[in-house]
Amino acid sequence: MTTKDPDTRAMQDQTAHLELTLMEQFIRARGYDPAKLGDLATDERERVQKEAAAHAAGKLAEVESRAHFIHELHGRR
């Protein structure tokens, strides 16, 4: 039987929330309303969503990289 670590789950929830926030921020910065993406043509909507997802993934990787660096500086792994 496996048990789920509540700390891991909380971190995943925070990461997911941060990802969505970064995507929404990106979409708004491009002049779109995230709630109205469904009104766009399919190809435009998919392009905006892919760009937003790529942007968020890059930012999350940067955050993770910085966190690992800080842990290494403080001697934790």
In words, what does this structure look like?
With about 80 residues, the protein is mostly helical. The chain is built from 2 helices and no strands. About 5% of the residues are buried.
Keyword list:
77 residues; single chain; 2 helices
What are the SSEs and their pairings?
Blueprint: H1 6-29, H2 42-73
Helix pairs in contact: 1-2
Outline of the structure:
The protein has 77 residues and is mostly helical. It contains two helices and no strands. It is elongated.
Instruction: Work out the helix count.
Output: 2
β-strand number:
0
Q: β content, as a range?
A: under 5%
Largest sheet: none
Q: Which radius of gyration do the C-alpha atoms yield? A: 16 Å
